[in-house]
Amino acid sequence: MQPNKLKILMIGPSESGKTQIANFLSNSINIDEAGNPKPTQGLRIVEFEQSNINYTGRNVDIELWDCSGDHRFESCWPALRFGVKGVILVCSSNTSEVAPRELELLYNYFVSQPKLSTKQCVVFYNCVDDQYDVGHLNLSSTFSRISQVAVNLRTERERLKTEFSNYITSVLQSV
After folding, report:
1. Domains in the chain: how many in total?
2. Half-sphere exposure in the Cβ direction for 175 (13 Å, CA)
3. What is the pTM (predicted TM-score) of this model?
4. Exposure check for the chain: N or C terminus, fewer CB within 10 A?
5. By the 8 A CB rule, do 131 and 108 touch?
6. Angle 157-174/18-25 helices, nearest 10 degrees?
7. Per-residue confidence band for 87, with pLDDT thresholds at 50, 70 and 90
């Protein structure tokens, strides 16, 4: 990682839409033209510039580490965690049954153990249907101080961009 880049890790259960969100945030692909998603094999790093961050008033170079949710890549977790400045936990209605346990595990490893602040973490609930309520995930009290945002790439794209920008501001204030 280059020293002037902000390393953000995006991780969550398999098939929660992490790659689709990463592609959208980085303007890597037109969501309307995206085909069927394929599981990420280990890791994919997307680099892009986030414009007009409120905290700095300038652009910020982002390294968004789009990580597989498959536990067979768990042996790579120490390398993924190295130098991380923020963690985006992603789940969806497709993963809501396993999400509470999985997000707790990921939070403990990637946020709590390296002693990141709660402001350096956010939960994106990827609404693949029209269900916008993150409350039904029944996350533990661990997440009571973590921002939880329902996002929908079909209908609320600009909201996702705004929430991501707010999150980057929060990370910058913490580091």
Report:
1. 1
2. 21
3. 0.89
4. C
5. no
6. 80
7. very high
